[in-house]
Write a structure and sequence with these properties.
- With 170 residues, the chain is mainly alpha-helical.
- The chain contains 8 helices and 4 strands.
- It has a two-stranded parallel ribbon with strand order 1-2. Strands 3-4 form a two-stranded parallel sheet.
- It is globular and about 40 Å long.
């Protein structure tokens, strides 16, 4: 949360002309309710099932820039599916940076802030870091630089990964 995933995705989509797929928005469109409503009425486990189903429904042959929520690492099979279809880039920032960004954002769109509080979010960040590190092909620091600079680095890493994959297949 607040790493810049959506902004970086939009920039990468514009620069590459690849379609962008925002996982949370796709789930909301399918469900007809918001992510926070899904959590409130169906629970996190049901939301994680929806995440895994939405990812499984992506065309494996179609190049996409996919923006996932930070909890996707908890959806059964989601990380394996993402890694099998492309490069997974972790936008990493220290907790202090993320907290400052969250304080400046519209907190009404971020139900975890109300549910967990700042201490709970910090603990969540600390607990998820090893999972992100394990899931990611690349880690990009996102606490310095503009969105364009971070997106450019992400695109360069993606291109390097794609080239490496092509060479390995030869």
């Amino acid at each position: 949360m607040a790493s810049g995933k959506s902004a970086v995705t939009r920039r990468m989509q514009a620069a590459t002309n690849r379609p962008a797929f925002a996982l949370d928005q796709a789930i909301e469109a399918e469900a007809g309710i918001s992510v926070s409503e899904i959590f409130a009425t169906e629970g996190e486990a049901a939301f994680r099932i929806r995440e895994a189903e939405a990812l499984a429904g992506l065309d494996a042959e179609r190049p996409l820039v996919v923006d996932t929520g930070g909890g996707v690492i908890k959806a059964a099979g989601a990380v394996e599916l993402l890694r099998s279809r492309g490069v997974v880039i972790w936008l990493d920032a220290p907790w202090e940076t993320l907290r400052a960004r969250l304080k400046d954002s519209d907190q009404s769109t971020r139900p975890l802030i109300a549910r967990l509080g700042w201490a709970g979010l910090e603990e969540l960040h600390r607990n998820r870091r090893p999972l992100y590190a394990e899931a990611a092909d690349f880690r990009l620091r996102c606490d310095h630089g503009t969105i364009d600079e971070i997106a450019d680095k992400a695109m360069l890493r993606s291109l390097q990964w794609e080239r490496r994959g092509i060479q390995e297949r030869r």
